[in-house]
Design brief:
There is one protein chain. This protein is of the alpha/beta class. Strands 10, 11, 12, 13, 15, 16, 17 and 21 form an 8-stranded mixed β-sheet that branches. The protein folds into 4 domains: 108 residues, Polyphosphate kinase N-terminal domain (Methane Monooxygenase Hydroxylase, Chain G, domain 1, Up-down Bundle), CATH 1.20.58; 195 residues, Polyphosphate kinase middle domain (polyphosphate kinase like); 160 residues, 2-Layer Sandwich (Endonuclease, Chain A), CATH 3.30.870; 172 residues, Endonuclease Chain A (Endonuclease, Chain A, 2-Layer Sandwich). The two termini are 50 Å apart. 39% of the residues are buried. The radius of gyration is 28 Å and the shape is globular. The protein is built from 20 helices and 27 strands.
Length: 695
């Protein structure tokens, strides 16, 4: 039977994920400050989505018609569908904020001041705060009809103000009478100085209540000071998001670092991806802003009173831990705690760590020990996204100063971390570290570190220990990203880690990986072989099963193999946090179940398991099954050979498949994420995994 395969649109699938994030903000079983954080995450996600994905579709609209006709999709139609869904989600966001979050805060004596009157003490506080802290950093700019300006900075909040100029009053005019004003309105723009001042200001307490106000609402209340000689009519928040994509992905010629530096400067003034505006703004005012900032109709996206709501991460909590989930103590690995040295322990045995449940200190100890161990001769590592004050970079610099050879591949093209990575690279290079810059046309996304010790054998071969992970070498994100990290001294794997770094240092050489699966080398073919093996086993009546966990599934060739396996009778479980272009519950996908888990920690790990006649073949990876990961990135899929570690990971995956609290099944369409059937016992995977590892 011939099947016509179907695929969900990548962008709409991603929006369904962000809607799932928004659902967490609706969960009344969670403390209110946890819910507030999910509002911040939803907004931050959407902001990046517009600056990257929507901006790329917008750029396609500038192509000539003959080029547009060659595309297998219509950018205009996709943008229209995106905006429809985004407006729905923004309406839901606003309802949650005003009808659920603010009342819940109020019940706990936390009041967000907007247009409400203040008592004398609070008025005096705001007056002083405005004059001393805000006024020096605000500079209103008057607009005139017909003006065309271009000064709106990327991702910055502005207030658009409508006002009327006062007419000069007669000498005998009674002071209590209203001032006469000109009939024609005037308009102004004010930049809200969040770059210098906190977004939220706590006011003096009154009647045992805590009062908090947005920075821009202080400015709204004091507009009369900014515009003497005018009567202020109204004000509305606006912001512009600009195209954040640097056009360097496929650069093969010239100085790549210099191109990145120039691209970062242009990002601040790039083409508009969207113009967000308070939807209560009058149409004539919006039209004036559209002209003033040279915007098109498709740039305009209605929003609510506040922009940059990702700042809710910093919303003050005057009550304390009562209103948020308390932090969970990090688990310690008993064997590694007893070991006098991480390097020695990993030399004797393989260890798997599960973050953020386990402490990330073991990884930092690994680098620290390597920096001072006299037997260590060389350290090699990849770096994609680093913590602001990276302890790992400090260890690498220490190692170089101690006379060890240190080689670090720094990916300068890691989006939104380009500038930070350039600065880290400069610091490391000055310390004598051999910094390998980005490869032309490829992003290096693999997470690998290798320690090589002085040889004690006659053949002169150095012994190595590696740390291989599904997440970045970043001790800050390791607190909230759910990832796995693997210490190994397996000679076969160490040889292939050395081959990986050899390739990064000299990409022209030919390399054959026997154990690792690596895009552009062997990953696609090996995956095809493993799919075919499960398909053949199913056709022979044997048990056949595939279990994948990843962030995103978009690559059509991989999806087609999953469909083919499903048709053959292979049972398939997919745990996918974000984008899923595979369509379940069709004749060609009836054996595929797709589960999404959104909870306190960001599910970030990638794991791939093939049943293989009961000899489970397992890979942990940095790679999602996305076209970009499989075609334009250097990724690692690392085989897990240790049976104890395999069981450890399979136990965790099974707990996630049993989740009936935070898990959802993907239904027949992207809007239909169904809550898992409620069983007698509630299973919340992240809590269960913590308890499982604790035992």
């Amino acid at each position: 039977m011939d099947y016509k395969y179907e695929y969900y649109n990548r962008e709409l699938s991603w929006l369904s994920f962000n809607n799932r994030v928004l659902e967490e903000a609706m969960d009344k079983d969670m403390p209110v400050y946890d819910r507030i954080k999910f509002l911040a995450i939803h907004y931050s996600n959407l902001d990046e989505f517009y600056r990257v994905r929507v901006a790329s579709y917008r750029s396609l609209l500038t192509l000539a018609n003959n080029h547009l006709e060659k595309l297998d999709f219509k950018p205009e139609s996709i943008l229209e569908n995106i905006n429809k869904e985004v407006i729905k989600q923004q309406d839901k966001f606003e309802r949650i904020f005003y009808e659920e979050i603010l009342p819940e805060l109020s019940r706990n004596n936390i009041i967000l001041i907007q247009d409400e009157p203040l008592d004398n003490g609070q008025n005096d506080f705001l007056q002083n705060y405005f004059l001393q802290e805000i006024l020096p950093d605000v500079l209103p700019v008057l607009l005139t009809k017909g003006d065309v300006l271009s000064f709106l900075q990327d991702n910055v909040i502005y207030l658009a103000v409508k006002l009327f100029k006062k007419k000069k009053s007669k000498k005998n005019k009674k002071p209590e009478s209203k001032p006469k004003i000109n009939k024609l309105p005037q308009y102004a723009i004010i930049k809200v100085p969040t770059h210098k001042l906190p977004r939220f200001i706590s006011l003096p307490k009154s009647s045992k209540k805590n009062y908090i106000i947005f920075l821009e609402d202080i400015i709204r209340k004091k507009l009369g000071i900014l515009f003497p000689g005018y009567v202020v009519d109204s004000s509305y928040s606006i912001k512009i998001s600009r195209d954040a994509e640097l056009p360097i992905e496929d650069e093969f010629k010239g100085n790549l670092v210099e191109k990145i530096r120039k691209g970062l400067k242009k990002r601040k003034t790039g083409m508009p991806a969207r113009f967000l505006y308070d939807k209560t703004i009058p149409n004539d005012f919006l039209d004036l802003l559209k002209i003033a900032f040279n915007l098109s109709k498709r740039d305009l996206v209605p929003s609510f009173r506040y922009q940059n709501i990702n700042d809710l991460w910093d919303f003050p909590n005057p009550i304390g831990s009562k209103l948020e989930t308390p932090g969970t103590p990090k688990l310690h690995h008993r064997e590694l705690d007893k070991a006098p040295s991480i390097l020695k322990a990993a030399k004797e045995k393989e260890y798997m760590l599960h973050f953020p449940y386990h402490s990330y200190d073991y990884v930092i100890r690994f680098f620290n020990e390597a920096a001072i161990d006299p037997k260590v001769e060389e350290i090699k590592t990849t770096q994609y996204r680093l913590a602001t004050n990276s302890a790992i970079v400090s260890s690498l610099i220490s190692a170089a100063l101690n006379g060890k050879k240190v080689t670090v591949f720094v990916e300068f093209k890691a989006r939104f971390d380009e500038e930070a990575n350039l600065n880290f690279a400069d610091r490391m290079a000055k310390a004598g570290i051999n910094v390998i810059p980005s490869l032309p046309g490829l992003k290096v996304h693999a997470k690998a570190a290798l320690i090589l010790r002085r040889s004690t054998t006659k053949d002169g071969k150095r012994k190595g220990t590696a740390f291989l992970g599904t997440g970045n070498f970043n001790e800050k994100t390791a607190l909230i990203y759910a990832d796995h990290g693997y210490f190994t001294s397996n000679d076969e794997l160490i040889d292939e880690v050395e081959m990986l770094f050899s390739y990064l240092e000299n990409p022209t050489q030919k390399i054959e990986f026997q154990h690792f699966l690596v895009p552009k080398f062997n990953l696609r073919q090996e995956f095809k072989n493993k799919f075919d093996r499960e398909i053949n086993n199913a056709k022979q009546g044997k048990k056949a099963y595939i279990l994948f966990k990843m962030n995103s599934l978009e690559d059509k060739k991989m999806i087609d193999k999953l469909y083919e396996a499903s048709i053959a009778g292979v049972k398939i479980d997919l745990i996918i946090r974000g984008i899923c272009c595979l369509v379940p519950n069709k004749l060609f996908s009836k054996n595929i179940k797709v589960t999404r888990i959104v909870d306190k920690y960001l599910e970030h790990a990638r794991l791939y398991v093939f049943y293989n006649n009961g000899q489970n073949e397992m890979f942990m990876s940095s790679a999602d099954l996305m076209k970009r990961n499989l075609n334009r990135r250097v990724e690692l899929m690392v085989p897990v050979y240790n049976e104890n570690i395999k069981k450890e990971i399979l136990d965790i995956l099974q707990i996630q498949l049993n989740d009936n609290t935070k898990a959802r099944f993907l239904g027949d369409n992207l809007k239909d994420w169904l809550v898992t059937d409620q069983q007698e016992k509630k299973v919340r995977a992240q809590a269960e995994i913590y308890n499982h590892l604790k035992k």
